[in-house]
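Materials and Methods. Structural model of Signal peptidase I. The 182-residue sequence of Signal peptidase I from Lottiidibacillus patelloidae was retrieved and submitted for structure prediction as follows.
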Amino acid sequence: MLKRKKSLEWLKAIIIGLLVAFVLRTFLFSSYEVYGVSMLPTVEEGDRLVINKIGYYIWEPERFDLIVFHANEQEDFIKRVIGLPGETVEYKDDKLYINGESIEEKYLEEYKESLNIGKLTGDFQLRHVTGVTIVPEGHIFVLGDNRRFSKDSRHIGFVKLDDVVGEVNMRYWPLNQFKIMR
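The predicted structure was written out as tokens:
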């Protein structure tokens, strides 16, 4: 009788553990593996990340957040938030301008120096027939850190906030590169 009771307790603990894991993975956090080179040097192909899926239900993405979003029905992309709703975005002489004001991208400085290839980001400005275009409400403008080899908002357009899966909170693999992201 005691053995049966102990087995029943173990079974309940396992079921509760599986339910908690399911809820956490489905609604709060998710694991994501990086494919491609568009976010070098920040994250590399094969890196494994923890995505906070609940945060953006509480607050809006901020500039320079690393996010995962549904690029299409088959693919999720990881990119960096650059332009927020209502802003203009421009690159000129490898510098970012938001609403005409120069914004530093400190996370790219070391990468630019190590490449020694000139400009990392080609000049561009959001344009529309009527003039300068702003990032529409309910959307963001995203770029990969490896600007020369990134399929991002310059190619796929603005990202709907509804398509954002979540914010990258941590790299847990490879272990020697474990990092809390911000």
